[in-house]
Specification:
Distance between the termini of chain B: 35 Å
CATH architecture of chain A: Roll
Number of strands of chain A: 5
Helix content of chain A: 10-25%
Oligomer: heterodimer
Order of helices and strands of chain B: EHEEEHEEEHEE
Order of helices and strands of chain A: EHEHEEE
Largest sheet of chain B: 5 strands, antiparallel
Structural class of chain A: alpha+beta
Shape of chain A: globular
CATH class of chain A: Alpha Beta
Chain lengths: 87, 137
């Protein structure tokens, strides 16, 4: 088993109710699979699927990335929704 | 000594950044200030709260500046982004780009700001004048 820390920001933190959490996962778990697990736990996160960025240890990563023990994972909600009329 | 890429709760001042980027090779320094506005889509805003994943945002700002440098002949770049509660009229972000010529400086500054809004892990919570709030996402 591996343990990873998940950081929650902005709208995600509001849904989850905390800024970070530890998850114990089976070896070989991918970022995408962890996201699915989070959606099962917090169904309101489902609306973010397909419009979020993934990061592992402060680097952008892909859903297929396999997690390692001690990783810091962040699911990054949309930054600005790509609005060009903003700021 | 001005750090080029910064996330801070302190008010932003463009003058030290302009001084920090300018070298004798540069004929142009472009400063973009992103400022808190009093409304969005006609709905009155009370104030904004910005939040960042700071440990990641600083390297991402550096990456974005490198992307701009790969596209245009520019010199030094500074990007400072404020977080926390910001009142209307306060500066949320400064993008300062020096270059030998103005076309590259303008283009790079616009590109950097667009990319910040695409990928930098920095979020904005709009607090409306009616007392409600929402993350812009």
């Amino acid at each position: 088993m591996i343990t990873v820390t998940v950081r929650f920001f902005a709208g995600h933190r509001d849904i989850v109710g905390r800024a970070e959490a530890q998850y114990t996962l089976t070896e070989g778990t991918t970022l995408g699979q962890l996201w699915e697990q989070l959606i099962a736990e917090y169904p309101r996160l489902a609306g973010y699927t397909g419009r979020l960025l993934f990061a592992v240890n402060q680097q952008f990563a892909q859903p297929a990335t396999v997690l390692s023990d001690g990783d810091e994972v962040a699911f990054i909600p949309p930054v600005s929704g790509g609005r060009s009329d903003d700021v | 000594m001005i750090e080029p890429f910064v996330i801070t709760t302190e008010p932003l001042d463009p003058a030290p950044l302009v001084a920090a980027v300018q070298t004798p090779d540069d004929g142009a320094v472009v400063t973009f200030s992103g400022v808190v506005r009093n409304q969005f889509g006609g709905r009155p805003t009370a104030f904004l709260v910005y939040e960042a994943y700071a440990e990641m945002a600083v390297p991402v700002l550096r990456q974005i500046a490198d992307e701009a440098r790969a596209r245009w002949p520019i010199g030094r770049v500074c990007v400072h982004h404020r977080v926390g509660r910001l009142e209307i009229g306060e500066t949320a972000v400064l993008v300062v780009v020096a270059a030998p010529h103005r076309a590259a400086a303008f283009a790079a500054a616009a590109y950097i700001m667009d990319r910040i809004k695409e990928i930098a892990p920095i979020w904005k919570q709009e607090h409306w004048a009616d007392g409600t709030a929402e993350w812009r996402e």
